[in-house]
Amino acid sequence: MTNKITIRKGQLALLAKEGDYYQVLETGEHRLPWFGKKPDVLVVNRDGSEVPAGLAEYLRRFQPEWVEKYCLAADLGDNEAGALYLNGMLLEILPPATRRLYWKADDTLTLVRLNTDEVSVPADIVNAVLQPKRGAAVKGRDAILVVQVPAWHAGVLKIDGETQALLPAGISGYWKVNHLVEAEVVDLRLQVLEVSGQEILTKDKVTLRLNLAANWRYSDVLSAFAQLSKPLDHLYRELQFALREAIGTRTLDELLEDKQIIADVVSVQVANRMAAFGIEVASLGVKDIILPGEMKTILSRLVEAEKSAQANVIRRREETAATRSLLNTAKVMESNPVALRLKELETLERVAERIDKISVFGGLDQVLHGLVNIKGKDNAA
Question: Do you know which Pfam families this protein is assigned to (predicted)?
Fold first, then answer.
């Protein structure tokens, strides 16, 4: 007596007795012996899936003809990577020295072998990794370093410790397997570096707190990265050193008299030092100079005293000028009766402005004579 087993399209059945596979059943209806020990049946899908490691090793060793007929062998060398495609879509990136079996899916499952000695990854594989057709991430994509360089930037690429030519704007990929690959994207435009909160002693032991800003750009990117591991950190330290030298060798009075001297000294010193490293300092300036609290009070009092002294000098100068003017006027009136008469009329006009009503007896001369007498009595009193 027999029983039947049906294998659908896209499937295989492996028959085994006591753990040994002895027959493969393809698509169709098959009869199995009824009497005796029933064989174990393993049904697999020919969909490009990976053969389990244990079964794969068994088939390679004992059934190599089955491997050749039903499987795709992904046996890669130490300097090979593999791109596994199914129906034209990239499924997986296989690293070097991979040893796997996949169930064939007709001719739609393919393996493309890639030489990792060529560090650059083909553009079609980079695009497939970035934009997978199925929407799901490609397995093994971590084996590729994708570098995206935007406009107005450049890419600094190091392969096995050696700096390569600058990468232009765009997308490129590189094998991370069998190589040490590093990439850094740098901005070629003018940038700002802030050096804040620097507390420095002046020559006369006064602590100043300064904030400085520098505008800089790369003049030679490869030179900068060939000589410096971190160019921006080096520029920051040079600005610190130059600022401390400019402040520490001058007194507070010198700095307050000419604040621009700090920016001038630092600018010249840093520009000369950084030019050899491919970095250009376009301009810099001190944003803030902050004094200690007690020094602010002392300077405020000093400024107040100076302004008060200046005000006193001006006041004395004006009083001297007014006295000299009166003396000159008196000399003119002494030698010129007409001028004296005009001065008397001017005085009478000022008096009349403050009086609502006035009665004149004896003419204008009598009024003037009486006014002089009144002033004389007031002075005597």
Answer: Band_7
